[in-house]
Amino acid sequence: MSAAPLAPPSGRFISFEGIDGAGKSSHLDAVAERWQRRGLEVVRTREPGGTPLAETLRDLVLHQGMDALTEALLIFAARRNHLQQCIAPALERGAVVLCDRFTDATFAYQGAGRGFDLAVLTTLESWVQRGPGGLRQPDLTLWFDLDPAVAAQRLVAARTPDRFERQDEAFFHRVRDGYRARFEAQPERFVRIDASQSRDQVAVQIAAMLAERGW
Ligand SMILES: Nc1ncnc2c1ncn2[C@@H]1O[C@H](COP(=O)(O)OP(=O)(O)O)[C@@H](O)[C@H]1O
Ligand SMILES: Cc1cn([C@H]2C[C@H](O)[C@@H](COP(=O)(O)OP(=O)(O)O)O2)c(=O)[nH]c1=O
To answer: Can you tell me which residues bind ATP (predicted)?
Structure first.
């Protein structure tokens, strides 16, 4: 007996996560359109980025050399502006926010990938995401889990690599482990998507998971 349909995801914050090439961007539009067809306002955004200031910081982070602390501080500075200027106002007016990456990526890339101090990242997370109702986190995170070797094959012809996409496969194995650690620490917030399947099969996984929530 399926559960009664839950309220639509109005005012919900949903993030897509996974290593480069896992297939996040390939499915974001379809999920946004699923809710727009039902008359919901959907704010589709990304990190680093989402506001003019945060997009400027994104360009620096993706293309300028810097040490791990500088990188983490710029990413969280972008996040603060993105939360205040874009995400929080959208959620307050009842829109669905669909974000391509959020803080899980920081723990995966800067924490696990670069070996940056997780305690410092946790402190920055608490400062930047503190809101009236406590820590502002996504209500649901779809983790597109994929073997880095498969992701690398997909990216070979896809696009000019940025600073992160130029990292070696061992880096992306650490990033994948970093995502798994966040998934295991917060199982109630995450859904793992098997991103190794075909594009259509991944779309079926996503639709089934959302239907189960009545979304
Ligand atoms: N399930 C899939 N199987 C094979 N190739 C895929 C699949 N999903 C996406 N791709 C391809 O892999 C590349 C990366 O996909 P993309 O959605 O940009 O990943 P991400 O946004 O996670 O970096 C693109 O060329 C895309 O066409
Ligand atoms: C949000 C975030 C992204 N990143 C990295 C992951 C990605 O390689 C890169 C963002 O690029 P990405 O999201 O893959 O966009 P595009 O599809 O245009 O390449 O930034 C971090 O290292 N830390 C973070 O906190």
So the answer is: 18-25
DSSP assignment string, 75-123: HHHHHHHHIIIIIHHHHHTTPEEEEE--HHHIIIIIIIIT---HHHHHH
**Quick one: CA dihedral 152, 156, 158, 164, positive or negative?**
positive
* CATH, residue 113: 3.40.50.300
Q: Does 4 map to a domain?
A: no
List, chain by chain if needed, residues with CB within 6 Å of any ligand 1 atom: 18, 20-26, 144, 154, 158, 198-199, 202
Whether residue 161 lies inside any domain: the answer is yes
| The pLDDT value given to residue 179 | 98
Task: Count up the domains in the chain and report the number.
Answer: 1
144 Cα nearest atom in ligand 1: 22
| Domain-embedded: residue 5 | no
Cα–chain center distance at 21: 13
Residue bearing the CA closest to ligand 1, atom 14 = 21
Q: What is the ipTM of this complex?
A: 0.97
The dihedrals phi and psi of 137, each to the nearest 5 degrees, come to: -130, 160
* 1 found inside a domain: no
**pTM for the model:** 0.95
- 98: CA distance to ligand 2 center in Å? 15
List Cβ neighbours of 143 (8 Å cut-off, separation of 6 or more).
17, 18, 104, 179, 183, 190, 191, 192, 193
Query: Domain containing 67: what range?
Result: 10-211
